[in-house]
Amino acid sequence: MANTSEPIKLCHMMLKHLYEGGYTWTQANEDCSWLTPAEEKLVMHFLCETAVHGFPFTHRHTKEVIDKILAEHLGNKFPIEGVGINWTYQF
């Protein structure tokens, strides 16, 4: 790592929060995620592979794939209607 002599701006309250065992935004969002990190990679790989073969993803198709994965993974805990209509836009 290069020494640039530039000050690093840190929020003292965030440092205190983390020191006391708090979570970062990324960690907190992972806890609320429907997909595991491995499942996310699987979906991304699938979407890239289908695009390479001339079938670029649509939000409807992505939702169908994710709904199938989550229905298998979560069983009865997963809602029948699947992920929300705008879920793929945030993915």
| Biggest sheet overview | none
Supply the helix-strand structural class: mainly alpha
Order of helices and strands: HHHHH
Helical coverage, percent range: 55-70%
End-to-end Cα distance, whole Å, is 32 Å
Can you tell me the residue ranges where pLDDT is under 50 for at least 5 consecutive residues?
A: none
Strand content: under 5%
The DSSP helix count reads 5
Question: What is the mean predicted local confidence, pLDDT?
Answer: 83
Radius of gyration over C-alpha positions, nearest whole angstrom: 19 Å
Which geometry do the CA atoms define?
extended
Kindly state the number of beta strands.
0
Oligomeric description of these chains? single chain
Give an account of the 3D structure.
It is a single chain. The protein is mainly α and 91 residues long. It has a domain of 57 residues. 57% of the residues lie in helices and 0% in strands. The chain is built from five helices and no strands. The two termini are 32 Å apart. The relative contact order is 0.10.
List the helices and strands and how they pair.
Blueprint: H1 12-19, H2 25-32, H3 37-52, H4 59-74, H5 87-90
Brief write-up:
With 91 residues, the chain is mostly helical.
Structural descriptors:
91 residues; mainly alpha
